[in-house]
Structure formats: C-alpha cells, structure tokens
Specification:
There is one protein chain. Helices cover 60% and strands 0% of the residues. It is mainly alpha-helical. Helix 7 (124-136) packs antiparallel against helix 8 (140-153), helix 8 (140-153) packs antiparallel against helix 11 (196-208) and helix 10 runs antiparallel to helix 11.
Length: 502
C-alpha cells in the first residue's frame, strides 16, 4: 500500500495549514497565527515543506517548489533584518506563495510518496555513487531514492559535491539546475537538514530529468538553441584548466590583503565586459597568475555588480548575477566539495543562462561618481530613495508590451541609483539602506521571490567583499528595488498592507 510523506504532529499541522487553507484566506489566517505568537521560522519551514511535498515540477523553472525553496535563505535573512511590522512581510509573502503553488491546477496538489523499501545499510560512498549515476543517466526516481538514503549516510558537503558535476554543466542551459541545488542546501541550513529528503527530492528530480527546450515561451528559440551550443562547448572550459595550469597546488583556496590589487584588476575587466560569455578565459588567466578561489569569486561578485549597474534591464527576474555569485561563494566554503567543482563553477559563471544575455542591455555607461550627487543627510536621502522608487510607474508582467527580457528601466530607476550612490559615497549607514530596500521589495509578489533573493544576495556579498569596492552591492540593491517594487500585478501585498494598517 502506498504511504505518503508526513511529519510529526506539530509540523504536520502547520504544513497542512499551508496546503489546505483557501488562497483567499491565507494572508488573514497566517497573520492571525503570527498575532497569536506563532514563531515565524516555523511557518517559513512549513512553507518550504508544503511546496516541496505537494507541488509538481513544471515544464520550465517557474512554478512548483523551485523558486519558493530557493527563496527560503532570503526570507529567513530578511525576516531577521527587518524589525517590527515589516518583519512580517517576508513571512506572509512566503506562506502565500507556497499556498498559491499547492493550489494551482498546473502545480498541485501533488503527493510525495514515502519510500519504505530503501536499503539503509549501504555505505556513504556507494549511495553517493548511485546518486551521481542516476543524475547522469536521467533517472529521476532513482535519484530521489538515492538522495533520501544519502541524507542519512553522507554530509551536506558530500551530497552537494555529488550534485555539482551535472548542475555546473547544465548551467549554460538553465542556471536553475545549479541554483536550485545550492539554494535548496541553503534552505536546509536554515530550517534543518532533517528535512533534507523533502527539499532535495524535487531538486534531484529536476536535475536528472531531460531538459524541456520548448517550455520557455518568453524567450526565443534562438536563445534556447544558443544554450545548447554553450552546453556542447563545455570542453572549452575544461581546456582552460590545462592551458593556465589551474591545479589545486597552484590555485589556493584562501584570499587575503595580498590579493587586493589582483581582485580589483579582475573585477574591472569583468565590469567593463562587452561580451559576458567571453570572460571564462579572462577569469582563468587571472587564476593562472595565482589568484585564489576566494579572490576570484570576490572579483566576479564586484565585477558582476558593476555589470548589473550598467544594464538598462527592467526585468524583475534579472537577479542571477548576484544570486549566482553568492551561490558560488557558498560552495567554495565546503571542504568536501572538490577543487574541480569549485573551479568549474567559477569558470562557467559567464556562460550562465540568465547572465550572458544581458549583453544587449549594457547601455548605461555608468561610472562611480558620474553626475551631480546629493549632499543631503542620511534620513533625507533614504526618504528621497523611497519616494523615488514608489513614484515609478511599474509594469504588469501579465500584460507586457514586449518580451520581459526586453523591458527597459524608466528614468526613475536611474535617479534611485544616483541617490543610492550619494548615500553610500557619503559614508552613511548601509544597514539602514538595505533595510529600506528589503522593506520595499516586500511589495512585489509577481516574480516568485526573485526580488527577495537578490536583496539577500546583495546584502551577503556586501558583507563578504572588501571595502571600498563592496559599495556596488548596496547601490545594486536600490536599483533592483526600483525595478521590482513597482512590478505588478500586486495580488498579495495590498491585503497585507490593509490588514497590518487596520
């Protein structure tokens, strides 16, 4: 007899609350639970579990558990950073999104079957070998079974290392193969690895299935075919390893003050790129000259942030420069992840599906300090940024005049960036600036938490990168808030705002 996955009583009740509450009641009832003292962390955990066990994966990467789970790290981070009533915004949006996905006919309700016949006496090496083979053989069900056992037998780093070879190679087809794996692990870091099989089963099913090349209605077939070309060129990235002698004994793991100049040099080359996909050799050359893994990701992060500021794109889904950099920094920190996987993730960054297409948007010849800067006080600048962002007329992603990746940011976005640069260059408190942008993007409920993910990634990268070059991430957070906050349709935010104001 088939048995479905279930949890201990208190967790099961919260998960069922998210799965079974009517969509029109979810904000009201979640707010009531928070008012009654329920721990926000417990509701976020329940949202991750519900959307993983009761949603089906869609043909492409929108819908199902992919973005709700990938957003858990950001939701947890933003909830912790926002004080008072705004601290409830990410929780309410997270729960509402999980509830929406489990109730839409295209995704749910689905049912996750419990495995009662697993061979749990298998050692870690054997089960990891089975997991890797299931991924390369495109056997989703076997991958689910293997990862369930692996969660009991292997460490998180060992599991991640097994997923990465396929995830990194598929990055050029669709970077969600890579990002979903990484951010599912980060979600488990937040809610507990005891839930590993629940969050990772859909992730490995997604990674092991055949790619659906016809599912991307908003992108042209030429874009998809271009991804296949880069996928077939993966051997060129591998060849760079030999060309520049990139071996573990020549490329150190750790960075330090001695790399300051080298990091700036690579960041500047990346930030000035005209063709992003040409950058792998640039990165390999700098690493061949001795730049460490940590130094390389810092240069990618800073240089990528500058590319983001050069882009005129008004696509609220354009967050992958930041989330991709933060994901690579995360995996580099695992001692169990092989040098090869760390290296190939860095070399493959410029071929990322949703990064390389930004070439066509790099029309803002932005430079630090360009144009007149405001000399106002910190409170006045924060108020001006908020007023500017909320005054921008947004796009409705369900009724666009052009394809979403062709949207061009309005003048208000550039003004918000100018004000943000004024704030940062004056040395004002960046924590207050990040709190403002986090609060602003909680208005956006149309992009499956993309806004949340960039905000947290920009915050994390700002704190990880060395001053003074980390300014780029604080300004990028404002730019993205100016794109995302006005984006509609606003189906959840108006009710949140109304109920919290009542």
């Amino acid at each position: 007899m088939v048995r479905l996955v279930s949890f201990e009583a208190a967790v099961e009740e919260r998960v069922r609350f998210i799965e079974e509450t009517p969509r029109g009641k979810i904000v009201e009832r979640t707010l009531a639970r928070l008012d009654a003292g329920e721990n926000p962390r417990d509701l976020i955990t329940a949202a991750a579990l519900a959307v993983s066990r009761s949603c089906e994966l869609p043909a492409d990467h929108h819908g199902g558990p992919i973005h709700p789970v990938a957003g858990i790290h950001a939701v947890m981070g933003m909830t912790a950073r926002l004080t008072g009533e705004p601290g409830r915004f990410p929780v309410l949006q997270c729960v509402a999104l999980a509830n929406k996905h489990t109730n839409l006919p295209s995704m749910g309700p689905a049912a996750m079957v419990a495995f009662d016949d697993l061979k749990m006496n298998t050692d870690a090496d054997k089960v990891l070998e089975r997991l890797g083979k299931a991924l390369t053989d495109h056997e989703p069900r076997l991958a689910e079974r293997a990862v369930t056992v692996a969660c009991a037998k292997a460490s998180p780093g060992q599991i991640l290392d097994t997923l990465l070879p396929e995830a990194i190679k598929r990055n050029s087809l669709d970077d969600h193969y890579f990002l979903y794996c990484i951010y599912a692990c980060r979600a488990l870091d937040a809610i507990g690895w005891q839930y590993g099989p629940i969050l990772l089963r859909p992730a490995v099913r997604y990674l092991s299935r055949h790619h659906s090349f016809d599912a991307y209605g908003e992108f042209s077939r030429e874009t998809v075919e271009e991804g296949i070309v880069y996928y077939d060129r993966y051997h060129e990235l591998e060849a760079l390893v030999a060309t520049y002698g990139l071996t573990a004994d020549r490329v150190p793991q750790k960075t330090g003050p001695h790399e300051d100049a080298a990091i700036v040099a690579l960041a500047e080359e990346i930030g000035q790129a005209r063709v992003i996909a040409d950058l792998p050799e640039t990165i390999a050359r700098h690493m061949g000259q001795g730049l460490s893994l940590e130094g390389t990701i810092e240069a990618i992060s800073i240089g990528g942030g500058r590319i983001f500021l050069r882009s005129h794109s008004n696509n609220p889904f354009d967050v992958h420069i930041h989330t991709g950099a933060a994901a690579r920094r995360y995996l580099i920190g695992f001692p169990e992840v092989s040098f090869t996987n760390k290296l190939m993730s860095l070399l493959g960054w410029p071929w990322t599906y949703e990064v390389r297409y930004l070439d066509e948007t790099l029309s803002w010849e932005w430079q630090e300090g360009h144009g007149a800067l405001e000399k106002a006080s910190a409170p006045a600048l924060l108020e001006a940024i908020e007023t500017c962002v909320l005054g921008i007329e947004g796009f409705d992603v369900t009724d666009l005049p052009v394809a979403i990746n062709e949207l061009v940011a309005k003048d208000g976005v550039r003004e918000a960036v100018r004000l943000a640069e004024s704030y940062v260059r004056a040395g004002h408190d960046t924590e207050a600036l990040f709190a403002l942008t986090a609060r602003l993007v909680c208005r956006e409920d149309a992009s499956e938490m993309h806004a949340y993910k960039l905000q947290q990634a920009a915050y994390d990268e700002y704190r990880a990168c060395r001053a003074p070059h980390n300014w780029v991430h604080a300004v990028a957070a404002v730019k993205q808030a100016a794109v995302a906050a006005p984006t509609g349709p606003h189906r959840v935010w108006p009710e949140i705002a109304q109920r919290l104001a009542a």
